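Example complex used in Figure S2.
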Amino acid sequence: MGAIITLSLLAILVLYLGLFKAKNTLLPVSLAGLLGSAVLLLLDWNKAAEPLYSGMILFDRFALVFSVVCILITVLILLLSKDYFDRISGNVAEYFALIIFSLTGAVLVTSFHNMAMLFIGIEIMSVALYILAGIRKKDFGSNEAALKYFLMGAFSTGFLLFGITLLYGASGSFDLAEIRQYVIDNPTGISVMFYVGILLMIVGLAFKVGAAPFHFWTPDVYDGAPILITIFMSTVVKAAAFAGFLRLFSYCFEPLQDFWVPVMLVITIITLFVGNITALVQHSFKRMLAYSSISHAGYMLFGIVAIGASSSGAILLYATAYSLATVIAFGSLILVKRTSGSDDYESFNGLAKRNPRLALTITISMLSLAGIPLTAGFVGKFILFAGVLADYHVLLVVLAVINAAMAIYYYFRVIVAMYFRPAEREVVAYPVNYQVVFVLAAVLILLIGVYPGLITSLI
Amino acid sequence: MDGIINSMQGVPLNHYILFSTIIFSIGVIGVLIRRNAIIIMMSIELMLNSVNLLLAAFSAYSGDPAGQVFVFFIMALAAAEVAVGLAIIVMVYRNTRSLDINTLNRLKW
Amino acid sequence: MDNLLILLLFPLVGALVLAFVKQSAPAKRLALLFSVLALGLTIPFWCQFNPAAGMQFEQQFAWIPALGIDFHIGIDGISLPLVLLTNLLVPLIVLSSFSATHRGSFYALVLGMQTGLLLVFTALDAFTFYVGWEVALIPIYFICALWGGEDRIRVNIKFFIYTFFGSLLMLIAIIYLHVQTPSGDFALTSFYNLNLDNATQRWIFWAFFIAFAIKMPLFPFHTWQPDTYTTAPTAGTMLLAGIMLKMGIYGLIRWLIPVVPEGFAAYGWLAALLGIIGVVYASLIAFKQKDFKRLIAYSSIAHVGLIGAAVFVWNVQSLQGAMIQMINHGISVIGLFMLVDVISRRLDTRDMSQMGGIAKVAPAMAIYFLIIVMGAVGLPVTNGFVGEFLMLIGIYQYSIWYAAFGGLTIILGAVYLLRAYQQIMHGPLNDRTSSFAPLQWHETVVLVVVSGLIIIIGVYPQPLLNISEGAVTELVQQIGSLAR
Amino acid sequence: MMVFYFVAFLSIFFALMTIFTKNPVHSVLYLVITFFTFTVHYVLLNAQFLAVVNFIVYLGAIMVLFLFVLMLLNLNEETEPMKSNLVKIMGTVAGLCFLATIIGSLNLLETSNPLILKNPDIGLVQNLGRVLFDEFLLPFEISSILLLTAMVGAVLLGKSDPKKI
Amino acid sequence: MIDLIWLVPLLPLLGFIIIGLGRNVLSKPLIGILGSGVVLGAFLVSALIFGDVYAARQAGEAGSYTVSIFDWFSAGNVQIALSFLIDPLSAIMLLIVTGIGFLIHLYSIGYMQKDEGFGKFFSYLNLFVFFMLLLVLGSNYVVMFIGWEGVGLCSYLLIGFWFKNKSYASAAKKAFVMNRIGDLGFLLAAFLIFATFGTLEFSGIFPKAATMVSGDGMLLLITLLLFIAATGKSAQIPLFTWLPDAMAGPTPVSALIHAATMVTAGIYMIARSNILFTLSPVTMQIVAAIGICTALLAAAIAVTQNDIKKVLAYSTVSQLGYMFLGLGVGAFTGAFFHVITHAFFKALLFLGAGSVIHAMSNEQDMRSMGGLKKHLPVTYATMLIGTIAIAGIPPLSGFFSKDEILAHAFAESPVLWVLGLIAALFTSFYMFRMLFLTFFGKFRGTKEQADHLHESPLSMTLPLIILAVLSAVGGFLNVPAALGGGSGLDGFLAPVFADSVSHTGAFHLDHSTEYVLMAASAIAALVMAFLAYNKYISKGAVPQAEGARMGVLTRLSYHKFYVDEIYDALVVKPLDNLSVFFHRIVDKWLIDGVVNGVGRLTGESGKYLRLLQSGNVGFYLFMMVVGIIALLIYGVMKF
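Predicted assembly (1856 residues):
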């Protein structure tokens, strides 16, 4: 709880700093604040978790871990933000504030224990992002991203709310515990409204995690938004959304599996294929990552399809792995784009000659995204597959495997470009903060890949 | 007041749901058939309102105020969304001199 | 000095060291040093190995307790020959690349791959096995794609995706089996002790089989192989053909057939048939190859096909034959690709129609070449004979027709290899070949070692056979040969 | 009884007008009317406070904002972009399908037990206040963050800064 | 002495190793002495061993010993030991191989003097002797197979000895491949034998076999496969075409490998496993038929050949056919007897031809020879003896051996005898034709050839003389009873063929018939010799130059009945086309097409799938709604 307060206050403080033109203090202050809130979370690590504020939020282990991960990823992103935002405009403080607000929303989504909190958390997260996506005011891409994200987000919110309402109408409460109770108490006589409510919740949440057929915003928004914001969207927001998704479904709807698992199954398969196949034919690295993020969402959905004790750990691991790799991938794009000015694969040509270390980290992240052993990405896939196979969805895994094989193609295109395609290019500037972040992320990827116990033991 | 209340008695719950669903669908239709971003936003507002009404109906039905309280949050959201949305629209308008959502299709494929 | 873990990690250390060596010359020497030391480290295992004692030198650490994954390695009669082979060939491969000027990173990749291979050959835990399986794949991809010939990017991405897809199927099977195990772990033994229903065994069989078949490669899954072999740098080709494809065969023996005996009983005949088809098919294709390297690539498919068939027949003779033939094939294929390198490097072509009469200018090489060829066509008192004899007599016990068609290899092999030998070494010299530079020392070393081994193993193969005898007999008793 | 159906009819009618009139200004005005009818519904549901808030927030704030922006960008019938009829029809059909499916899945056409106000005074301010500031305190507080975010964002996007991209 | 047996193969092996390693340092004379010395040594040892065996036979024992050297390899119940079997049969073969081998080594010292590959040549020869001895001595089919393939390798090496010449090289390849076809038969036969008898040791197989019923199916299969192997090695139809081409090798090689020893391996092997054959009459008939056909075909071809070595080559094929005929009619001793005599006189003839070619400075076409009698007296004299011997004119060796075979053939069926006789007629005709064309008439060569003519050195003539003596008297090894001989060979080899004999019953033909047959063949031979004399001396006819008009039969014979061309059209071409078809169509287009197709398919589908991402928000929203409707429909379905 302290974390949420800290974060909100931190955001406001940042706004004030901006007001007093204390630019240089922004980064350290917000980093300190973030780490502080992370610490606050870790403080009640071993506390027996009970719902706070008349059952509004519940900081159990699950919530703690996910929140901490989100916060730490945000730390990495903010580290990258040095001399990134002020290329856009002077209002760096606002950007920071919005990011932190959004993070607050994310934390709420991971820890909600009441539909109201879920709803508000999601909205805080999204509203901040609607804005952040559009901060390049003169850039059409940015504008378009903002507008598309906003319109579709608002639209999906409508369905989410409708769903919540129906659930409320059926169960007569917004409190997860009571809803769960309602489900357990009358296994047969559950009102149809409840089922429709579940379906509409699926719509709303699937939209947030960018699962087909509600994924259409993802590529365009990721593509149009400023890269750093894209990183935030594709890592923190996605992770939080999945946390919320999982929390709701594993806690409340778990007894009704037979009803919604088929739906999720279909959604998962479509998501995998749409994401991968479309990513195959992209020329822009950024857009490829956008599509691949869809397919990764597909993989993470495995955790929900095979809902069970292991899901949370699996999704956590996968989300972490994916986030770390994505930070490197998009971050490197920032650097490369500065010299080449384009998002295409070609701008990576011959990178290995000029910046071997950078190329190596990118390679690691690509291998992790592709799911090669000894990287975090592999372990993530492995555990998710294990979970699904435990439920005997062999076909699903076979399809997933086909997709994994496809994915190799577009991830290796980057490696091919960096190592095998010769190109006359100047050295890409590799600022120290980027080095720190990348090396940290790469090491974590390998560490988790070699010894995943680090993460899985947390939940 | 009582008169009104009495006149309320006996409207089947389903009809409330039906009604708000219709409004909601109208909102959806609006979103689908208009190209003016503002109108689309308004249609979305329509959807939200139908939800509000439904919540109110439910809370009245089950005699639990939580539903009505929830409506406040939705309203807050609506306000926030409108503010942000209109800001975005204005920003876009500055660049494109149009509110037509179809003019914004540079990002594709 | 018989700590298996050290043996496995030693090449990795070498790789890490070499990764920082920029110049070519010291990198070569270091790499050679490391690989030779690694070979030295394997000797104690051979000496202390007890064929009767089953699994030995075991080491086991908990890896991912949550999933019951252990890091579990050990050596038995099946793995030891392949471990020996790996550590024997890597020094030769390193030597073979001395003509080129590669930086340390190249050798780092080679040694890194060595670790992966050793891991595969010693793993007793499915997860460990899979990890080794992929870890071996990454370096070879980079070796082939970085130092390869023309069109290397397309060819290698195809190779990578193809094999990766196969191994993912295997991953499914592994995980599925893991889910089935009562103890919920990945241990080989608990896989062996599973009793799955027939239907399950059947699809698991294919999941594993396709993975291994692609790696070997067996007949319909082979199309990546000629291109990859041809475009890869010599060392890469040697790694692929000499050691890597043994991963597939080893997998059949260790992870496929004992795990799903019923699936094997149901489809073994088909798998063996694929092998036999491969023998004839690839040999016939090899007839008309102009490119020397490509010809050897196809011949490798043929030889591997026979080994595969022998494995699937699954009796003592055929398995023993397969075991020793894996080593033989490794040795002679290294020799052949060395020759390809020697010749194409000097004539800067691999088109055999432009060669001829080299025996005149390089008589010594002619002799090595001949010995290697004779080994490849399985002439008695060369190693090839022992292997092919045992395999064929084993296959015969299943079906005379398999044996007859498989036996065609000794005719067809003679046809295309002698055709190649004649086109390259015999006939009149032409202006290209007349200025054929004499062998360099490292080339001579490789060729001498290879041809020496061919004769030695051919004359006295028993020690090698003794290593695997016990393990093979036990396996056959466990599973029982392929029923007619 | 009848009142509800009458008002419901009105709201539906005006809602339709909202989305089908070509002139944006008109549709805003129709929307205003629609919302007004909603207020009536709230009253009928005995949610007086809600009715008031709805009246103030929507009609007072949101609608004015819409209208304001419309005027600002001075949109009118001429500039109004319209989709092709095909799209319109498809959209309508889709919407109706949505309606139909929901009706079907909720089998709304069956009669259900009538809505009886159990405790008529939940809509009163003090009741709502009690719930809002006790049970729903946290969301209430948090929603302030939401509004703050919106405010900051609106300002950020709204003001035109000299700096180029 | 028996336990010295390991020396016999070891000596040539040592010779091979030493010469092979030192071929560039050692001087030619040293190499020559070393090379022939080791073989001589081997010969002496074998002589001693033969002595023991002979003594044993005289003492009435079987005289067969098995000496095990070491266990080669084993897997499960397959145990392969490197062990030797010495019995009368192998003892004689030892003598022939080492003896004639030595003579030919000796001869080669002179013959190869000028060749820069001198050392290589001798090392190869020694290697060959080593493998041949393994083949002969092997006490199981695997060791025999080692020798079997080893000699194949050596013949490959020696045929391709002058590999600079493309056609020579391909001749070598052809020989190796055709042998390999046979070898596959041998392998499969070995597997069958192992499956049937559970061992590959002769000592284990034959006793078991003797107890089996005649005409056993498995035996039939085994023997057929073995026979295929024999046809490969011993150049019978259909695999005989490699032998004439094999004349590309140096003449001593032709003499040693392609006349005296290697090509008779097939006969040796069948004689070894005689019991198996006796028990499958069908195979026996096939063997006889193939044998006689080969004899006739080859003889018919030999009649019109102009290359002196080709003539001898085809005559070899024909004689081998004779031996198979002998085997086929159960005259194992006779066949083996013919092996011996043939070894003598055919080696002699080849070496003689060699010395002629040597004198003619590598001219092999008889059309440019003639009247060499006065220039090469020794060669002429010895070759004359050889010719008479092979023509089967008494009392020289050929007569006796050939006659024994014919006698058995007659006993089998007169038709075979007639055919055999015809083959004999051809033989004597073309042999005398060769003799006359070469040594009589006037010299038809070029001027410088004429100046260069000279008798060969002693190292070459000495072997000729020895061989001449042998082929003159060799026949008395086994004089038929009809001529009052004790038929020594018969008695000596009796234990080897005992089982077969006990099955077929002892061979008997009353003496009168035998006299008639002998007379017939002898007279016929003389007549043909006279015809040849008439044609080539009296009329002085000379074969026409290339491309001249000839009669149909002549042309057929001259072009070897187009067998090579037929094979090319029936086997080689189709295989090559098949290869191209597999490569281009099946591999590249079909299989790889599927593989790449999958990839391309996904790529293509991506091209279309991406169009969904039209960039138009309205469309996105629409799709969302569609999705939602789908979900809700699922809901409706559910209830």
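Strands of chain E lie at 65-75, 78-86. The CA atoms of residues 560 and 634 of chain E lie 83 Å apart.
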